[in-house]
Design goal:
Elements: E1 6-7, E2 11-15, E3 19-24, E4 28-35, E5 39-46, E6 53-59, E7 70-73, E8 78-83, E9 104-106, H1 114-118, H2 128-132, H3 163-178
Parallel strand pairs: 1-6, 2-9
Antiparallel strand pairs: 2-3, 3-8, 4-5, 5-6, 7-8
Family: Belongs to the p23/wos2 family.
Biased composition (Basic and acidic residues): 173-182
GO molecular function: Hsp90 protein binding; prostaglandin-E synthase activity; protein-folding chaperone binding
């Protein structure tokens, strides 16, 4: 995988139904990369320490489409978007390696599970209807709280949360009554 003096860069990856992301998590110069249907090769030199030369070859778990690869140099990292040859089931791992690669980890910020792909990407969760609804009449959004219909605001009818609370309250009242007046 690496020759003498060359080390693998820290890499994170994520996947979607139709693509995978490979992120080289180090700022590099003199970058060379090549994507084939079955592998990804990267070479680069660390910007801050020219003695650190990176090189790695990843053998993909399944085939990818090398014609659809895009890359972005974000500064602190390089992000490669690589489309799978066939969209479909998620890969259990990025590579065909049987052992865990110490420099490779999952990037959960970009990860989307198979079940997430079925959801509408415009759905922002449970507050979507509340925040995204048209009309803009905020007063009507809280009608079910009945704020104007306050009959009595008392804590007298709230039950105790534990047996100890009830004992403490009874003991405290009893102590007050048993104390002689000074």
């Amino acid at each position: 995988m690496s020759a003498a003096g060359l080390i693998p860069p820290p890499i994170s990856w994520a996947q979607r139904n139709e693509l995978i992301y490979v992120i080289i998590d180090v700022e590099c110069k003199d970058i060379e990369h090549k994507v084939t249907e079955k592998s990804f090769t990267f070479k680069g030199v660390n910007v801050l320490d020219a003695s650190k030369k990176y090189e790695v070859t990843l053998n993909f778990f399944h085939e990818v489409d090398p014609e659809k690869v895009t890359s972005k140099n974000i500064g602190r990292c390089l992000e490669f978007t690589i489309y799978k040859k066939e969209a479909g089931p998620y890969w259990p791992t990025l590579t065909t390696d049987k052992t865990k690669l110490h420099f490779l980890k999952a990037n959960f910020a970009k990860w989307r599970d198979e079940s997430d792909d079925e959801e509408d990407p415009k759905d922002n969760g449970m507050f979507n209807n509340f925040m995204g609804s048209s009309g803009g009449d905020w007063n009507n959004k809280f009608d079910d709280f009945n704020v104007d219909d306050e009959e009595e605001d008392s804590d007298d009818n709230i039950p105790s949360l534990s047996q100890n609370d009830e004992d403490d309250e009874e003991g405290a009242e009893g102590d007050k009554e048993k104390k002689p007046a000074a």
